[in-house]
Design a protein that fits this description.
This protein has 171 residues and is mainly β. It is built from no helices and eleven strands. Strands 2, 3, 4, 5, 6, 7, 8, 9 and 10 form a nine-stranded mixed β-sheet that branches.
Length: 171
């Protein structure tokens, strides 16, 4: 699959257009339990929107750094990035390896992949299996996940991600 390596340099800069309502903070929120290769994610924000590099794909980013739709994350931190090959819908998704995610948008498939990235966008591990459930969409994309990663680690948790109209790749 052509998406290997940094998958959009996910030290992301977030463009304008954040949706939000009383049930979802401007920067979103998430909880993450577990570890991958000794690394944990102390989530403070969560955003969802079109992938900044791959047309037709979408990203859910849970980050240790503060993010809003119009401000890039700042400082050191890790990101947990889920990539969808179609807009998120309220349903269950099977987690697949990055190499198994279709190369073209796939609105009829309920699959997603995940990456754990360290500051600067370097990949620590990628998803091998698991599930991600989206309970609601709109201004706030909410749900939960349980994912096994390469290297033998597992991360699970929940998210209430602020929906953004666009996300742009960072420097």
């Amino acid at each position: 699959m052509m998406m290997m390596g940094r998958v959009g340099a996910l030290l992301l800069s977030w463009a304008t257009g954040c949706g939000g309502d009383e049930e979802c903070k401007a920067g979103g929120e998430a909880t993450v339990q577990g570890s991958v290769e000794g690394r944990t994610v102390d989530a403070v924000s969560a955003l969802y929107g079109p992938h900044p590099v791959f047309d037709g794909f979408f990203a859910l980013v849970i980050d240790e750094r503060t993010m809003t739709c119009d401000a890039p994350p700042t400082g050191a931190g890790k990101s947990l990035v889920f990539i969808f090959c179609a807009p998120a819908a309220a349903r269950d998704y099977s987690m697949v390896g990055l190499e198994d995610l279709p190369e073209q948008p796939c609105p009829d498939l309920a699959v997603a992949t995940g990456l754990l990235e360290e500051e600067g966008g370097s990949d620590v591990a990628s998803a091998m299996s698991g599930s991600l459930t989206v309970d609601s969409t709109g201004a706030c994309v909410a749900g939960m996940f349980s994912t096994t990663f390469t290297g033998g680690g597992q991360l699970g948790g929940s998210f209430r991600a602020a929906a953004c109209e666009s996300l742009a790749a960072g420097p």
